[in-house]
Amino acid sequence: NLSAAVMFRLIERHKPTVLIDEADTFLEAREEMRGMINGGHNRQLAFVWRCEGDDFEPKRFNVWAPKAVAMIGDLPDTLEDRALVVQLKRKESGETVERMRASRVSELLPVRRMLARWVADNEISLANADPVVPEELNDRAQDNARCLCAIADVAGGDWPETIRKALVGMAAARAGDEPKSKGVMLLTDIGEILERWKGDRIKSADLVAELVAIEDGPWEVWKGGENITT
Question: Which value, to the nearest 10 degrees, does the dihedral of the CA atoms of residues 216, 221, 222, 224 take?
Fold first, then answer.
């Protein structure tokens, strides 16, 4: 429920890492916010101008920040071009996943301290880095990859080769991945429901209930955070 006006003020004041969840419920309709999230590759150009105070004095606000966006479906094209896309999948019935409870956040403190120290020790090398990025990537993907390649080069060891292979593999996987339309997603889930449904008929209300019950599916928050309807 974050507004664009709050977002650029938060970034300007606190310089946070911005984590946006359930973006499919609101981001598509907020063009101004999408424009701010787009400001990502160049610190000098990642800003917006807004009028402030009773005299409406123009003021520049920084929107430079690392940003992670989680959503069901595909990002708007301009955002996806600037993103490293990580596809998630539903947990299979036979898979076991350890849960990360909020009460365990303190366990990550030593890791956070080590990361902060590593950045402090290597800040000059990272700031001056101009890494070689894979030629297999297109221009925008190379921009996306530059920071990760710089970090990998400073880390050394197997990281430079491993990261570059992963980036090329991710790009290839996305290129060969035909995104499903909303209609295809709906028909696919309906087909799976009917396969396990007892009898040869299903009421619309029962079908909606089954769709909404799909774990991590889009139908529970289909429109403005509300369930899909009959």
Answer: -150
CA dihedral 124, 125, 130, 136 (to 10 degrees): -140
Provide the whole-model pTM: 0.68
| Average pLDDT value over all residues in the chain | 87
Q: pLDDT, tens digit, for every residue of 159-188?
A: 999 999 999 988 887 776 655 677 888 898
Segment 116-122 long-range contacts (CB within 8 Å, at least 24 positions apart): 122/154
CA distance 159 to 170: 16
Q: Does residue 224 register a pLDDT over 70?
A: no
Stretch (H or E) spanning 20: strand 18-20
- Tokens (6 digits) for 22: 């359930």
- The residues, any chain, with a CB within 8 Å of residue 43's CB and separated by 6 or more, are 64
d(CA 208, CA 220): 9
Which residue's entry shows tokens 């071009």? Answer: 81
What is the torsion angle, in degrees rounded to the nearest 10, for the CA atoms of residue 5, residue 7, residue 13 and residue 18?
Answer: 180
- Greater model confidence, 42 or 214: 214
- Whether the CB-CB separation of 78 and 31 falls below 8 Å is answered with no
20-24, 72-76, 143-147: least confident range: 72-76
Whole-angstrom Cα distance, residue 230 to residue 200? 19
Instruction: Tell me if residue 226 falls in helix, strand or coil.
Output: strand
Paired with 51 in beta bridges are 58
